[in-house]
Design a protein that fits this description.
- It is a single chain.
- Helices cover 77% and strands 0% of the residues.
- It is mainly α.
- The radius of gyration is 18 Å and the shape is elongated.
Length: 198
């Protein structure tokens, strides 16, 4: 594989998780009911394997570095991945499955609301960690690559949009698109910079 092919492959792999979640968000029901519970549940089962990859990609952007900023990015990516995956499992899979199993016409019991309460709190921790991580990545990239990193700054508004509206269309979908594209751009810039040093 050529160097430019490797860079394009790396950029596509880095953009993938955000773009996959954006596509999933187009099908994410805006509310949970018996009618939407199967789609709600299955979407979150699939997302369970993709949400953490957004954090993995952000951590990979500083691969091989041991400086304090790189560690801030890794810790932020880890906290996002852990807490947002917990949101997905609790408010996505668990609440969706229980709502579906309760049956049609059954009022949502307090226990399902409790799932949303704890899931939302964990998701809040995760989304704030994503914003902090995105800010650290963006500032670091700007300091290292200057103008070449400008498209990577879209990580920050992307993270804010996900914080505001999860992956719900249109706001959360737009957020994940921005995260995916910015991650891909920064990965491409990192690979190109490494190739120039060789």
């Amino acid at each position: 594989m050529t160097e430019s092919g490797r860079a394009m492959y790396g950029a596509a792999a880095a953009a993938g998780p955000g773009l996959v979640l954006a596509a999933a968000g187009l099908f994410h029901p805006h509310s949970l009911s018996y009618a939407t519970a199967p789609r709600w549940t299955m979407l979150h089962v699939v997302a369970l394997f993709v949400f953490p990859l957004v954090g993995v990609v952000l951590a990979c952007l500083v691969r091989g570095r041991g400086d304090p900023v790189a560690w801030v990015i890794r810790v932020g990516a880890f906290v996002y991945a852990a807490a947002y995956t917990a949101l997905d499992v609790i408010s996505g899979i668990s609440a969706g499955y229980v709502t579906w199993r309760l049956g049609e016409g059954v009022a949502r019991p307090d226990e399902v609301r409790y799932l949303f309460t704890i899931g939302s709190r964990l998701g809040e921790v995760g989304s704030w960690a994503l914003i902090a991580c995105a800010m650290a990545v963006a500032v670091d990239a700007l300091q290292r690559a200057r103008r070449a990193a400008l498209p990577g700054l879209l990580l920050v508004p992307g993270a804010v949009l996900v914080h505001v509206d999860h992956i719900f269309a249109p706001t959360g979908v737009a957020g994940m698109v921005l995260i995916g594209l910015a991650s891909g751009w920064l990965a491409n810039q990192n690979l190109n910079a490494r190739m120039r040093r060789c």
